[in-house]
Amino acid sequence: MALENSKHEQFCQVWLETGNKSEAYRKSHLNSLKWKDETVHNKASALSKKGEVLARFEQLQENTVKAHGITIKSLLEELETARQCAITADTPQSSAAVSATMSKAKLVGLDVQVTESTHKIIKADDEQW
Fold this sequence. Notes:
Blueprint: H1 6-18, H2 21-28, H3 37-48, H4 51-68, H5 72-88, H6 94-107
Helix pairs in contact: 1-2, 1-4, 2-3, 5-6
């Protein structure tokens, strides 16, 4: 069911269409067109976390997935087909194959980004300044 607030409904629709919260905010709140990008980003982020807005977005996502018969299984099968085509092409496309493999990993939640900080923390009373 659509949200009563038409700006919030439009925000959800555009967010689903573009995958970009800031763009959705600008299109649904025309007064924000002159705002700084950071301001729009902050407002869009806050709006996307509101319970009713997030619930509506998830409902729209679910409807889209059902309408197109998309499942994790079907996506994995498509990616595997693309990966096999890339590997077995007359001129093997290893970067395309790797991309398909990484997309599969992301889809099933196995692509975990790990970052490591190499900064040394020095206490204020430490003499290593």
